[in-house]
Design brief:
With 493 residues, the protein is an alpha/beta fold. Among the domains are: 10-41, no CATH class; 166-385, Aldolase class I (TIM Barrel, Alpha-Beta Barrel), CATH 3.20.20. Helices cover 32% and strands 13% of the residues. The protein is built from 17 helices and 13 strands. The chain has helices at 17-20, 73-76, 79-84, 90-97, 103-115, 124-129, 139-144, 219-231, 250-262, 275-278, 281-285, 287-302, 321-332, 351-363, 387-397, 459-466, 468-482, and strands at 174-175, 181-184, 237-240, 268-272, 306-311, 337-342, 366-372, 408-413, 418-421, 427-429, 434-439, 443-451, 488-489. The strands form two sheets. A nine-stranded mixed beta sheet has the order 1-2-3-4-5-6-7-8-9. The chain has a four-stranded mixed beta sheet with strand order 10-11-12-13, with helices on one face. Helix 14 (351-363) links the parallel strand 6 and strand 7. Bound molecules: pyridoxal-5'-phosphate and iron/sulfur cluster (SF4). Pyridoxal-5'-phosphate is lined by residues 175, 177-178, 181, 183, 239, 419.
């Protein structure tokens, strides 16, 4: 085949490289390019702003919170300061924000916390990244601080452990759902508590509305989990989640990884932690913890096994130069980091923000892996998006950057079907908001349903959900239309 143009496209008076980027002269490897004419491209020059994913906040952003105004960089950027000053009560919030927000807003938070299934836990780092001039719309406030006034009724088909993790557990804190992988939950605490936590049935301690059993980092429980993993040759892949491994002392982190690496059939271990997104300074200043992680990654590499980190950045508002430094450190030390986001209304449910997030993560060598459709979790109905809107965001993200940095958008289908590609439903009714999925690798006899939040449905759909006798009828219609009504419906509670 003849190339369409076998010569560079040049035009008269065309600039040379050194006219356009004089910096090349400073770099011996690029010097030879200096006098080459720049070929003419078809693409329009990039708009200013389209590269803002390369901007990382280096300012002392915490100083606008009066209580932190006197805290210098070194102190604010230490993990011990962040742990010591973690915000855990409405009283803390009141002390930190009085004067910055209205009294009504503080009262709204107090009532919101009273009704919420998750306790409050927030690092000073995140608290100072929020925009307290516009707290109702701030993505950090939305994720961590509930307010009563925006609360919506739960979807009638929603349950507390919607993913049925406790049912797929051979021993407490170990979920074996997929054929070759398992999820180990060593503990039930995290450096922050996300309002939308899918594990709100266990993580973060009991609240006014939910009593939790929880998972303590107890030897007995861990041993039972290790025993099961060792006995199942099919398990190659273990996710260590929680709770959050960031909260494990280095000795305990090492212990888990030593045991898992010693089990011959386990080939891949992921440490799932929200830490880098909410307290990146720990990686930079808690050397014992970071060393424990990096040594275990090295040990895995010696054994030709992968030990990597899966983290959870949800928006660019959580990313600063400190995040970048922490991710650079892990990259230099050979630790692969991937990211899983949850699509949250008002936080990252626009194509613009999601593209920026994906690009900013990629820029820090963090690979965007998944974006989750928000699970059907109690008490946070106003945070979910419609499947239709999530799919539109996916369409706009795909193609905007490298394919290997393009996250797969998934729905973890209620009833224990596991993660399904958002687009892979057998049927979706945008009016009733019901989508129908199969998950043959997990259970080929069942169908699984996901339900859009009712407040975003068209009027006709909203009206039908108002009448309880319509509920089963809508589900029957969807199953019939999907052609799967012969299959068993996964339990809804
Ligand atoms: C998410 C999850 C995994 C890991 O799944 P990947 O698709 O490989 O990321 C394993 N077990 C359970 C129960 C899970 O929910
Ligand atoms: S960090 Fe993860 S496990 Fe912990 S509260 Fe948030 S979503 Fe739940």
């Amino acid at each position: 085949m003849t190339p369409r143009n076998s010569q560079p496209r040049l035009k008269e008076g065309n600039p040379t490289v050194k006219d356009v980027v004089p910096e090349v002269l400073a770099s011996p490897e690029l010097e030879d390019l200096a006098d080459v004419e720049v070929p003419v491209g078809d693409k329009d020059p990039v708009e200013s702003g389209s590269l803002d994913h390369r901007d990382f906040d280096e300012t002392p952003f915490w100083k606008h919170i009066p209580a932190y105004a006197g805290v210098d960089r070194e102190e604010f950027l230490s993990a011990s300061f962040q742990m010591r000053n973690t915000v855990t009560s409405a009283k803390d919030v009141r002390e930190l924000l009085t004067g910055l927000v209205s009294e009504d807003f503080l009262a709204d938070i107090e009532q919101g916390l009273h009704e919420a299934p998750m306790n409050l836990r927030l690092t000073p780092y995140l608290l100072s990244l929020a925009d307290w001039n516009d707290p109702y719309r701030d993505p950090i406030r939305i994720q961590f601080l509930p307010v009563a006034s925006t609360r919506r009724p739960d979807h009638p088909r929603l349950s507390l452990d919607s993913l049925h993790e406790t049912e797929d557990s051979p021993t407490p804190g170990l979920v074996h759902r997929y054929p070759d992988k398992a999820l180990f939950l060593p503990l039930d605490v995290c450096p922050v508590y996300c309002r939308y936590c899918t594990r709100s049935y266990a993580v973060g301690g009991s609240t006014d509305t939910v009593d939790k059993e929880g998972y303590k980092p107890q030897d007995e429980r861990w041993k039972a989990a290790f025993a099961y993993l060792a006995s199942r040759p099919e398990i190659e892949d273990v996710v260590v989640s929680g709770g959050d491994a960031y909260m494990l002392p280095p000795r305990r982190l090492r212990e888990i990884l030593e045991v898992l690496l010693a089990i011959p059939h386990i080939r891949r271990i992921r440490i799932a932690t929200k830490g880098p997104a909410v307290m990146p300074m720990k990686i930079l200043t808690d050397h014992r913890w970071t060393d424990a992680l990096c040594e275990m990654v090295d040990k895995g590499r010696e054994l030709c096994k992968e030990v990597c980190v899966h983290t959870h950045f949800n928006s660019t508002h959580e990313i600063t130069d400190i995040s970048r430094q922490a991710m650079d450190l892990l990259f230099r030390r050979g630790v692969k980091v991937r990211n899983q986001s949850v699509l949250v209304r008002g936080v990252n449910d626009s194509a613009e923000e999601m593209v920026r997030l994906v690009k900013q993560l990629s820029y820090m060598n963090v690979q965007p892996y998944y974006v989750y459709q928000h699970d059907m979790v109690k008490g946070v109905e106003e945070l979910r998006t419609r499947l239709e809107d999530s799919m539109e965001i996916e369409r706009q993200v795909r193609g905007s950057t490298a394919g290997f940095n393009t996250p797969t958008f998934v729905t973890d289908v209620p009833g224990g079907g596991g993660k399904r590609d958002l687009h892979s439903f057998d049927y979706y009714d945008e009016t009733t908001g019901i989508s129908v999925y199969r998950s043959p690798a997990v259970d080929d006899s069942r169908v699984y349903l996901y339900f859009d939040p009712i407040d975003l449905l068209p009027a006709e759909g909203r009206a039908r959900w108002e009448q309880s006798r319509e509920h089963d009828r809508m589900i029957k219609e969807a199953l019939l239309a999907s052609g799967l009504s012969g299959m068993e419906l996964a339990a809804q509670d």
